[in-house]
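[SOLVED] Predicted holo structure with S-adenosylmethionine

Edit: marking solved, answer below. Original request kept for reference. I posted the sequence and ligand SMILES and asked for the 3D complex as structure tokens.
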Amino acid sequence: MDAQFWHDRWASNEIGFHKSDANPLLVQYFDKLSLAKESRVFLPLCGKTLDIGWLLSRGCRVAGAELSAVAIKQLFADLGVTPSITKVGALDHYHAPQLHLFVGDFFHVTPTLLGQVDAVYDRAAIVALPRDMRARYATHLMTLTAHAPQLLISFEYDQQVMEGPPFSVTTEEIQQHYSKRYDISILTNLDVPGGLKGRCPATERVYVLRAGRP
Ligand SMILES: C[S@@+](CC[C@H](N)C(=O)[O-])C[C@H]1O[C@@H](n2cnc3c(N)ncnc32)[C@H](O)[C@@H]1O
């Protein structure tokens, strides 16, 4: 899945993953992260999700990374906020009070650029990446966030029936990436109504990951 694939999706507005409301699973399970007020939440591969507005409305500070400037411009427009934009190496940094979004490749974000992170919210991020990129994604995410707790929402389905994205990411794979550093709990398993893209029976799974082992 190269960058052009995603730029084309944004250019042609083929963004079926984008939801018109805050994700009900975030709303239901956010408190499982046990965050203090004004905590800073990082959303890797954030698109223009309305979850950012929801987190801001809860008093969180928010950071994100997203390839597409189209997405981030729309996100600020939807929030009714005008960002300041600065260039930081290969990335553009769009910022406003409580909100810092890095536009460019997630793998170019560094811990110094990102700053402190109290929690990660991964919705449609790890599942957006093909198998051969996911270990690198998980490792980079842990480095960026110093093993901050995560709320992670994934899909699991028969990858023979349908191609991703979203890709099927099994619980076993989540454990492979994260169990060395996190205690992993499944909060819920939900059948996707009508199947994924109306084609393929699938389970949506919500995890909370809490740093356990050093
Ligand atoms: C499936 S969408 C999910 C967006 C968002 N998390 C949501 O829930 O609506 C995946 C997003 O990841 C972005 N993306 C893909 N590869 C990326 C990368 N290497 N760095 C930053 N963003 C990336 C795409 O542009 C796309 O907006």
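OP edit: The chain has a mean pLDDT of 96. Thanks to everyone who chimed in.
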